[in-house]
Sequence to fold (370 residues):
Amino acid sequence: MKRVLQVLWAGVAVLLLVVPGAGQAPEVRIKDIARVAGVRSNQLFGYGLVVGLAGTGDSTGAFFTVQSVANMLARLGVVVPAARLRVRNVAAVMATAELGPFAREGDRLDVTLSSLGDARSLVGGVLLQTPLQAANGNVYAVAQGPVAVGGAGEQAGGSRSQINHLTVGRVPGGAIVERAVQASVAEDHAVSIVLLQPDFSTASRVAEAINRALGASVAVAVDAARVDVRLPADYPGGVTAFVSRVESLTVRPDVAARVVVNERTGTVVIGGAVRILPVVIAHGNLRIEVRSEPQVSQPPPFSPGQTQVVPRTEVRVTPEPGALVPIPGTNSVQDLARALNALGVTPRDLIAILQALKAAGALQGELVVQ
Fold:
């Protein structure tokens, strides 16, 4: 069972994920740690115009917006010189969407719009018909519809108030798929399972679980990331039923010993396979004390001066004693968390200690600094 130990020091949280040893790790479904090769999404993008803005669109300095409006009007039979246009109610945007692996013609996609010019807000706008193309230049969807922005903003008299981001919006279900992408699941009567986190041990366990469930040697681990599974010719239900059976199988994944520290947030995450060799740690800090005491300045008798209160500030820097703390070799991450918490250090100090343990060769695992 997974345990979470959270320690608070000076309002900053240090999160230690305490996971039992690898032998007690829970089993998970293959579909949660791997994907089927050939089943993937495709990114789409396009250039469009958002109209109907209440004076919060692009200025005339965004010449591409002015030129786009002039070109659109020309295609509609309205010829207007670009220099005569004022487009404060129009904003040029980049539209992005993700085409799923099994999307069919007529399906709808969510579209994200990002301002390309100097528009202040997309609130209340409507996206005009915008073709969405893939990296190969083919158009796979067309987007259009009202823009939803999760924010608001007003300005008047030189004062401005804003909630959330106003130059990025969404058109939920605003794109209609015009061309589907065929996903190739099985090639040459074989299915490839690709691990999301490559690991030789996990790949071997996946192949063993599949062979054990099907009662035949149909799966082989090609490398740390791929397991090839041969599709039985007489399997009932075909490829779909076979992939569904494989994805539902459970395995016990193996993970590398890793410690992840984030110095910006003071977060430390320790994997369950991390161990520490016997070591002695001495850690001390500087204690800085700032004391302010008011002093009364009294003028001499019968003088024209006035009584004044003068602040007096005293700064003291005292080194804290650093005691030697022996840390025995740990066999579990629970022992490691207990030993580190016993030091009673701040999150920043804990990160420094972990880096020093790695440099000394006592930390048996990979140290990742974000």
Q: What stands out?
A: DSSP finds six helices and 25 strands in the chain. The radius of gyration is 32 Å. Helices lie at 30-33, 63-75, 200-214, 238-248, 333-342, 347-360. The first helix runs from residue 30 to 33.
